[in-house]
Known about the structure:
This protein is mainly β. The protein has one domain (9-83). It has strands spanning 9-18, 32-39, 46-51, 64-71, 77-83. It has a five-stranded antiparallel beta sheet with strand order 3-2-1-4-5, with no helix packed on it. It is globular and about 35 Å long. 12% of the residues are buried.
Amino acid sequence: MQWEGVSGKGTVYSYVVFRRAFLASFAKDIPFVMAIVELEESPRVRLLSNIVGCAPEAVHIGMRVNAVYEDVTPEVTLFKFAPAAGAQAR
């Protein structure tokens, strides 16, 4: 096994909109979208992350997305996905 770079581009394979916090620490983020994103690279890689930068109602299967990064602390950065430029809204 080895590290390999990826483009960060992909499509929403599946998703769910959380409207109730399953932990109190997530209450401020409600509603939020958790999605399985399939990256463009081959072999197909699927990642679980949040969709940000659009209303939950705009997310749909097949939506083109790009990776974005959120600095949570100086030591921790999370990757999330946002709609790609020109992505079709629903």
